[in-house]
Amino acid sequence: MWVSRARYRLCPQWLCSRKHWLLLALWVAAASGSAQAQDLYFAQPYANRMQLNPAYAGLLDDYSITLSYRNQFPTLAGTFQTSQLAADYRFRNQHSAAGLLVNHDRTGSVGYTRFQAGGVYAYHLRLNEQLNLSGGASVSYGLQRVSYGNLVFGDQLSDDGVVRNLSLEVADYKPVHYVTAGVGGLLYTEQFWVGAAAHHVNQPTLGFVTQATLPLRLNLQGGYKVYFVRTTVKQQPKEISLTPTVSYTRQGGSQRAEAGLYFTATPLTVGAVYRGVPLPGAERPQQVLAAIAGVSVGSFRLGYSYDMSLSQFSADLGGAHEISLALREFDSLEVAWRRLKRRNYPTIPCPAF
């Protein structure tokens, strides 16, 4: 994904090509129609669960607000940074939830930015005493643009090394607007969950130079929680548990498989996610191990993760730092009333980080 950037660092004259800069911007943001195109990956997928599957809205808390920040390849001048705001609210009837998802991506040197904001709706259904079903959908508006202020064209360079302010190059690439939609479903009990989601089902048109499309992204995810201790003290749940997870993503011509393991001893959670599990018939992927740590204090959750590359090429680019902060609330009186009326839905057992 960053091969072209390495080429730039070896060949300064590559700065003179506006076309190559723009292609690099599309590669970095993973918004082109090439086989390498992928959406943003979060190392804490369950802290950003509506990004993973819209059916997660309203399944962990009565309401929550989560802020996430990811800084990828920090050793590069053009580090890729992403900020996300996610909020969801479960209605008192327990059958439906609404959510908000806002993303902002940017990369420093290229001046590429992408903003995407949209709504999420999920409907929850109890199939029997143990089994539950949630279906969700999302619709988002997106805007991507390139800032030309950081670019230097060939006619700005003089023989004595002075960079002129003016260029005859015409910055004629307008911002790209698009609308994207996604759907997803989850089947879960108090101990396991399995889900599937399809994002960009309308495959919106992107690209500054060509009419590339954002490929359909398919994701399968699941896990199982083993409880060693599970109690409620002063209306606060306590647990000691171990949760293995798996996930598979396919977008365009690329695919990714990962396996994770989380250990929770309230209020602490530690975990590791191995990304790049070899798949039959597929090229050997870049391999990354993400270490995750999180703590829950009252109504707050704080999570941190670091991506450690196991492949030499991506190791030279640096890892990735990610932090999440969530404010969540669970109405204990409402829960007691639901339990009395036998209307209480079990919480999905996925990790919170």
From TrEMBL:
NCBIfam families, alphabetized: T9SS_PorP_fam (TIGR03519)
Pfam families named in the record: PorP_SprF
Domain of life: Bacteria
Signal peptide stretch: 1-37
Species classification: Bacteria, Pseudomonadati, Bacteroidota, Cytophagia, Cytophagales
UniProt keyword terms in alphabetical order: Signal
Protein name: PorP/SprF family type IX secretion system membrane protein
Source organism: Hymenobacter endophyticus
